[in-house]
Design brief:
Blueprint (H helix, E strand, L loop, with lengths): L12 E4 L4 E7 L10 H8 L8 H5 L28 E16 L18 E18 L4 E15 L2 E11 L4 H11 L19 H8 L4 E3 L2 E3 L8 E25 L3 E25 L11 E30 L2 E8 L3 E18 L14 E7 L3 E3 L5 E4 L3 E10 L3 E11 L4 E4 L8 H7 L2 E14 L2 E10 L17 E14 L3 E14 L2 E2 L2 E4 L7 E2 L2 E18 L1
Antiparallel strand pairs: 1-2, 2-25, 3-4, 3-27, 4-5, 5-9, 6-9, 7-8, 9-10, 10-11, 11-12, 11-13, 12-17, 13-14, 13-15, 13-16, 16-19, 17-18, 18-20, 20-21, 21-22, 22-23, 23-27, 24-27, 25-26
């Protein structure tokens, strides 16, 4: 199938000239890190399932019909009404993540030591869940009890590293070519002294960095490249490191009517912390170096680092209902309203390069003892916050579940969840007139998730658990092979297992979860010329798959 190239922004760059009109779409992981794009909204809204207590995680979080667990506050608050006594617990976790880039060559070949801080794996110790549920009302009437709780669940984790390399690329497929094209298309200029300030649009900061590091140059005829010769081959290196999480603080209430009908309500307050470092580097290799007369300055390498930080909060409401028509059967339904996010963004970038003076240094640069000069430039920090922050609305969700009890010793539970990702909506932005509504509706569809879990008592005090979760592709037909600016999560599968040890007033639960996540293919950069495909500039295509291992321990006390 023909690949589709899509940038994070709807607008395309347009060049008007006396001869022709060209349209070029710019994108890739090195582009559009200075805004909150529709891909970022999707990634912040994407439902992950690596949260909860050890009991809920071991059972695949299939808790829409089950209850009496801290995960109920996030899944179906009706389960809070199923507590028959007070409960307090804490669930620390260990996470091990390894990401594999399909199509990559060995990364560390000929990479400078400064740039070897990247790894394709990460380890993290954190908190999966903690909470307190307390019965505030009990009676023998129709309203049997009312429970209130304060619960924290970590609902998304962004700790991930992925990196790749591609060697022997042609000199026409470099970052210099891309920024030269962008500078010509959008008419970027230098001042009369040849200086180029960063200006008030961080979209162009990469092009300014390229000029300050010798990747591009300018004369009266426009922008051109004079430090990379036609005989060069290019080794390219990409490494992306993401950190942070989304945690939800739930103020939750559950009511129990004669142990048959349960109703719950949760006010969810989310804390967002997402950080991304995007590194891209190039080495310029010659079989035989050009003469100094032919090319007096020759780039040796270039490195480009961008840092993006999203932080903020979100609020939502969850309503849940559960029923136990007979002792062995439970059914549940829950509705999650959209989460309304307010996000601040910080962005900065730097580029550093080394150039060899092969001739007599006609421009009089300050050279090192072996004829090399080192350039480095830093943009400073761009910040969107306060009245200039980003507001968006995540999709709503509907959950259905059922659970059966067999022989009073075994529970089998199953959930179905539907999320309407195409309704994710940008409500306000620092960029006037920016809207992703048509893009979200065109690219995404509703996402389906199925969760199943089981637990059984093998001894009066020992219970074993297992579960499975499957999340389907959320991309519409025709976009399954699209290349987006940043990788988009497509399918997820989870295998879970665990055990619990029950004492009179306390308990210990252990869980293990193995998650395989697949993503859309991506490139480090591309400039797709829609009118003349032969002028397209693009890096190599990579694929991405992540394996994540999580171990959770829950310590609880009933009172």
């Amino acid at each position: 199938m023909k690949r589709v190239f899509l940038t994070l922004i709807v607008a395309v760059a347009t060049l008007f000239s006396t001869e022709a009109q060209a349209q070029v779409n710019f994108g890739g992981t090195t582009f559009n890190n200075d805004i909150l794009g529709w891909g970022d909204m999707y990634n912040l809204s994407f439902t992950s399932h690596n949260y909860g207590t050890a009991r809920s995680m071991a059972m695949g979080n299939a808790f829409t019909a089950l209850g009496a667990d801290m995960a109920s506050a996030t899944l179906n608050p009706a389960g809070i009404g199923m507590y028959t006594q007070g409960d307090i617990n804490i669930s620390p976790m260990m996470q091990f993540t390894k990401s594999e880039m399909k199509g990559s060559e060995p990364y560390y070949t000929n990479v400078a030591k400064r740039d070897q801080d990247f790894r394709d794996h990460s380890e993290r110790f954190g908190l999966s869940s903690f909470g307190l549920v307390y019965p505030v009302f009990r009676s023998t009437g129709a309203l049997t009890n009312i429970n209130f709780g304060i619960v924290y669940n970590r609902i998304a984790d962004f700790n991930q590293n992925y990196m790749g390399a591609s060697t022997g690329n042609p000199y026409t497929e470099t970052m210099a070519n891309l920024f030269c094209t962008l500078s010509n298309i959008d008419g970027l200029t230098t001042d009369q002294d040849g200086r180029m300030p960063f200006g008030n649009d961080p979209y162009y900061w990469g092009a300014v960095l390229a000029y300050k590091n010798g990747l591009t140059n300018k004369d009266d005829q426009g922008w051109y490249i004079d430090r990379i010769g036609e005989g060069a081959t290019i080794d390219q290196y990409s490494a992306i490191k993401t950190r942070g999480s989304i945690g939800e603080y739930a103020l939750t209430m559950g009511m129990n009517f004669i142990d048959k009908i349960f109703f719950g309500l949760t006010l969810g307050i989310q804390s967002v912390d997402y950080r991304r470092e995007t590194f891209y580097g190039e080495n310029y290799i010659y079989k035989s170096y050009p003469s100094g007369e032919e090319m007096p300055y020759q780039l040796d390498y270039m490195n480009y680092m961008q840092r993006t930080h999203y932080s903020g909060s979100g609020v939502n409401i969850k309503l849940g209902l559960a029923a136990r028509p007979v002792d062995w059967l439970r059914i549940g339904i829950a509705y999650h309203s959209p989460t309304f996010y307010n996000i601040a963004m910080r962005y900065d970038a730097e580029m550093w390069s080394q150039t060899y003076s092969a001739g007599n240094n006609p421009d009089g640069y300050n050279l090192g003892p072996q004829g090399y000069m080192y350039d480095e430039a830093y943009t400073g920090v761009w910040e969107d916050s306060g009245p200039y922050s980003w507001d968006f609305r995540s999709p709503s969700r509907l959950l259905l579940g059922g659970a059966v009890t067999l022989l009073k010793r075994v529970i089998i539970s199953a959930d179905y969840e539907r999320s309407w990702y195409q309704t994710t909506h940008l409500q306000s932005a620092p960029i006037k007139g920016l809207s992703y509504a048509s893009t979200m509706d065109e690219i995404f569809k509703g996402g389906d998730t199925v969760r199943v879990g089981a637990e059984g008592y093998v001894l009066p005090f020992l219970v074993l658990r297992a579960g499975y979760i499957w999340s389907g592709n959320t991309l519409r037909d025709g976009y399954q092979n699209a290349i987006f600016t940043h990788p988009i999560a497509t399918t997820n599968s989870y295998i879970t297992a665990g055990l619990g040890i029950q004492f009179d007033i306390c308990y210990i639960d252990l869980a293990y979860q193995y998650n395989v996540a697949k993503y859309s293919d991506f490139k480090s950069f591309y400039a797709v010329d829609e009118t003349d495909p032969a002028q397209t500039i693009e890096s190599k295509t990579f694929g991405l798959k992540t394996d994540r291992h999580i171990a959770v321990l829950t310590l609880g006390f009933r009172f």
